[in-house]
Amino acid sequence: MKTQWQQAWMITKTELGRSKIGLVASLILNGFIALSVYSFWNGVQLKAGVEPLNHFLLDYMSIIGVTNLGFIFSARHFKYMETDSYRNYLRKLRTMPIDMRTIVSSRFIQIGMNTLMNGSIYFGVLYILMLANDEQPASVITYAGFVAFLLCVSLLMHMVYIRFEWTQSGKGYFFVLLGIIAAYLLVSILLYLSGVNFTLSIMFLAEHYAILTILISLIGLVLLSVLGYRSNCKLLMKQDLA
Q1: pLDDT bracket for residue 101 (50, 70, 90)
Q2: Is 21 exposed, middle or buried (0-12, 13-18, 19+ CB in 10 A)?
Q3: End-to-end CA distance of the chain
Q4: pLDDT 10s digits, 105-115
Q5: Enclosing H/E stretch for 120
Q6: What angle do CA 204, 224, 17 make, to 5 degrees?
Q7: How far apart are alpha carbons 87 and 160 in whole angstroms?
Q8: Count of Cβ atoms closer than 10 Å to residue 81 Cβ
Q9: Are 74 and 225 in contact (CB under 8 A)?
């Protein structure tokens, strides 16, 4: 008999196998977002004659890019408004002899795998551009702290996405996503008006407190994973999918 995590991995492999074209498209998109983020990053670093728009767009594009690392394009992404595909798929899994914890485990594995693939492209392209163009590029350990902190932000937002994905209809989920994107926009504007740049602030912390940033981020990732797993198990147990 297969264990819970073995079953979860089989579900994840099946999902990835059905999304090969979407995976390639997602990797290309993340490479493009990394190029965009670096262009705004470079604009901010040019001290003289910096356009204010660069500060705002650096945060906005960075937040959008990082908080979507756990997604890859699939047929379900393009049909959720029309067919409520997320909840229908959840109903299908619930009708099969699969433990609820296996379903949650599979969703977490999917987020982890997608983040690993997308993040390798996103953070890899961003760092290569820094090495190629910056006069004093961040050291490996500084960049590791920067990445670790942003992965915490990414995981936190994916816990939010999962809850709405499982509790909202297709149309409801669409409007939730619009609200989240609008919130990102508002946060980016407020940060700009307050004279703070979120992305550069994280890099500053990683540069001056690299080891501490990495340790705190790793602890944050573990806590978010454990608490997120437990809360989503409880959520799925209470969820009425009829």
Answers
A1: confident
A2: exposed
A3: 29
A4: 888 999 999 99
A5: helix 100-133
A6: 100
A7: 16
A8: 14
A9: no
Q: What are the angstrom distances between the C-alpha of 133 and each of 42, 49, 91, 200, 220?
A: 9, 19, 50, 17, 32
Contacts of 23 (CB under 8 A, 6+ apart): 16, 72, 73, 117
- Any idea which residue has 């508002």 for tokens? 186
Query: pLDDT (tens digit, 9 = 90+) per residue, 212-224?
Result: 999 999 999 999 9
Output Rg (C-alpha) for the chain, integer angstroms.
Answer: 19
Give me the residue label for tokens 């599979």.
Answer: 106
User: pLDDT tens across 154-178, in order?
Assistant: 999 999 998 888 888 878 888 998 9
CA distance 134 to 122: 18
* CA 233/CA 19 separation, integer angstroms: 26
Q: Are 155 and 225 in contact (CB under 8 A)?
A: yes
Separation in Å, CA 9 to CA 2, 15, 29, 115 = 10, 10, 25, 16
